Amino acid sequence: MSLALLVVYVTVVGVLLPRQLSQAGWTSHAPRLAAGTWLVAAASVLSVALLAAAVLVTSLHTLGDAFVLLLQGCGWPPQLRAPAGSSDYAGLVIIGWIVSRTVHSGYLVCRAARRERRQHRCDLRLLGEPAGTGVVVLDHPRPSAFCVPGDGGHIVLTRGALDVLSPAELAAVLAHERAHLSGRHHVIVLLPAILATAFPRMPLFTLALSEVRRLVELAADDKALRRATPATLAQAVLRLAVPASAQHPVTSPLNATGTATTERVLRLVTPRPRRTRLAMLSRLLVAVSFAATPLAAVALPAATDLASHCTEATTSRHLADVGLE
Questions:
Q1: Rounded to an integer, what distance in angstroms lies between the CA atom of residue 198 and that of residue 187?
Q2: Which of 80, 105, 132, 289 could crosslink 198 through cysteines, CB 3.0-4.6 Å?
Q3: Distance (Å, rounded) from C-alpha 50 to C-alpha 140?
């Protein structure tokens, strides 16, 4: 896989594909698979971009040689020992830039998330009233429900929510929020958040962030349906709906303010199309292809070199055996 092909892959998947994937109807019917596809595509583009920069320093076959020699304990191939030209240094600079921005953004995003969760827990200890295992009630008139990850996780309900929700609707809301916590959706959202912060001009990363946030809401709805009927959950979503300009009394990374209430309700009350195994398999293959591309870019040259080496070694042993005879 040449440098040109790697650049084309980054361009197509990172710039052209996101809009098509975000408009695909199947993502709403299989939110977990769709979220996984977004995450794998984002990780794939980042990996291939690093490989493209590495090709400026050395060839993919040389990387394959390095893989084989390291397996044999023979050290690095001579081509990897030191940069020799301007393209080599350019590749190293690009690699350093990508890695440094990713690491720095990861540090900032994770630190902000930890601080926010810590502040939420402090606020809940001061203002909240425990109401069962992991559930805290805030004295606020606006109907709201959300979860705060960390320290075992907390589900926050306002007095307004308790006033408007029936027992069945309350159970559905609690199941939805517990699905967020058990699915560790706050962790799933971190990867696209880090990449969108590091590379805000890359359409794939920015769209992945908004889409993954939307999809984890739908995935939580699906899990909540194991304990509630679609009509009950839809009614609960409507009762907790707030104007777009309103904010939760305590914001949470997983609150649904940015997720269209209309989409969630329509999805719950509309009969879902039948999902065939062939359709699901084809979509799964798309996600697998994203994951396989950066691996194949290095593994294929490595496999070729390893096969060549094994053939030469077998031939040498055969000749030696013949000579001994």
A1: 17
A2: 105
A3: 49
